[in-house]
Amino acid sequence: MAARSDPGPRRSIHPLHAILLAFPFPLFLGALLSDLAYSSSFQIQWANFSAWLIAGGLLAGALTLLWSLINLFRNKMAPRKRPIVYFSVLLAMWVVGLVNAFVHAKDAWATMPEGLYLSAASAFLALVAAWIGYSGFRTGKVG
């Protein structure tokens, strides 16, 4: 008889964690889109929109990061690779977003092009974090 390699059932994230995780990607994506609009139109208000969207993404990202950190230490089982990767991606998203906020605090045109690149990186990292978070984590055997 062949051995089963199924590591166990998937466990979804807590509903409040899922709500918090839903915010960073659209906010950072909105910042990227407003940076693109600013780079093509030179209307300063687009840079202001981007700065506010980044601030919102950082706030929601910090709460999500805190929740995932608590889950890392609360888990009674041996540390698993996936929650550590999830926390690391969230941390990288938040750090890149913070640097992006500092860049967007400069004068409007001084934010280009590095603000655009940092917005793209933070949106991508937020997408990866959401993908990992919503796909569920593996737990050990039940029983």
TrEMBL record:
Annotated signal sequence is none
Instruction: Tell me any Pfam family this protein matches.
Output: DUF2231
Organism, scientific name: Teichococcus oryzae
Keywords recorded for this protein, A-Z? Membrane, Transmembrane, Transmembrane helix
Q: Which InterPro entries match?
A: DUF2231_TM, UCP029509
Top-rank lineage group of the source organism: Bacteria
Residues crossing the lipid bilayer are: 49-72, 84-103, 115-137
Q: Which residues form the DUF2231 domain?
A: 14-134
Name the lineage.
Answer: Bacteria, Pseudomonadati, Pseudomonadota, Alphaproteobacteria, Acetobacterales
Q: What is this protein called?
A: DUF2231 domain-containing protein
